[in-house]
Amino acid sequence: MDMFVIQGGSRLKGNIPLSGSKNASLPIMSAALLTDEEIILRNVPDLADIRHQCKLLESLGAKVWRDNENALHIKVEDESNCQAEYELVRRMRASICVLGPMLARRQKAQVSMPGGCAIGDRPIDLHLNGLKTLGASIHLEAGYVSTECPRLQGTEIFLGGPFGSTVLGTANIMSAAVLAKGKTTIESAACEPEVVDLGNFLNAMGAKITGHGSPRIEIEGVDQLHGCDYEIIPDRIEAGTFMVAAAITNGELTIEKCPCNHLMAVIDRLRHIGVIVEPDGNNTVVSSARRLTPADLTTQPYPGFPTDLQAQLMALLCLADGNSIITEKIFPDRFMHIAELNRMGARLRKEGPTVVVQGVRELIGAPIMASDLRASAALVLAGMVARGETQILRVYHIDRGYEKIEEKLNAVGASIVRTSES
Ligand code: EPZ
After folding, report:
1. Domain end marker among 206, 231, 256
2. Residue 117: active-site member
3. What is the pLDDT of residue 117?
């Protein structure tokens, strides 16, 4: 397994590019199962999770390849297999988003139930209720969800749950309802930019979707969809992570083609903390040269503060001049990074879904362990500012969601070496 060895103390400076959004790519790639015509996707990042999704699509009869301009092509050639195997699904929870498209197109779908996850309990009841409301039969058997329906029927579906709406649940229901008979209305739909991107992609395939990006999505079912050529949006979570990288190292980064309109809640908190965020044409310049003001933040569904940037902001607030309060309202147990940051000299105290962050003067390098994707990103940020050397074990977590992170950060002045754990 790979590890990172980080020498702390460098100020980052320069231009840094963004990759395409992982969380937009995964459901869009799944939706390619809705046609047997060729789909071309541009700006799909080259990541462990994406390569995994390619394998899953191949197991479901698709031919998947990259061309010499790095565009990803998907063409379904055999629709006879309707089962997504446990061996493939267990490695990545987002595999569940093949369920809706496969059911809509092949009239049946069997997907292994996703297992446990480092960020907490992650049920799929809302996905299943939505498909049932569209007329599908649902059975749970030997760890698999089996669904069947000769033709889904448009209807009204409420998708809200105890923690708000569901991003992949909305993706699944949208991608199923596009081929349903008649009109479907999704109430309490997720409004995340990745859901909007999926809606735009489905429309490019010939679907009739309106309202995506709002809590009420309307879908007029069509008989069939066709191939298309589509460009995925930039990764807002990677952008937010680089904003914190500039701030935590007292540096100045120009984030290229930064989707600031998808990051308003994050920019609001960063400005409160004292970070300077300034648009410069398509780019955004982020800098920080003074002491950090503490801040309170609560994660919420979009357009609120994203749970996927909670750990990174916590790393930054460890160094603020006073106490901050962070409350996690999407995944209340998503705090695996606390113990590791405390090993580096942070003062973090968890009380239920809330963490009290007592600012310290410095973090100190230590051997630490990556646990999930975003927690690992927070540890890289902490390592870049810590005194001395930080060794991060199990960086495969970060490789799931950040494309060439050490190359991008080293190009603007970081000192991160990838090596093998001995
Ligand atoms: C997506 O996960 C993202 N994953 C996650 O990104 C992100 O953290 C999450 O949305 C929230 O923004 C992908 O896009 C691949 P949810 P998803 O269903 O869709 C509860 C990352 O680091 N819920 O919106 O699986 C659930 O427990 C990751 O890139 C139900 O109760 O999340 C949670 O409390 C990890 N029943 C809340 O809803 C359900 O059926 C939101 O989860 C489904 C969800």
Report:
1. 231
2. yes
3. 64
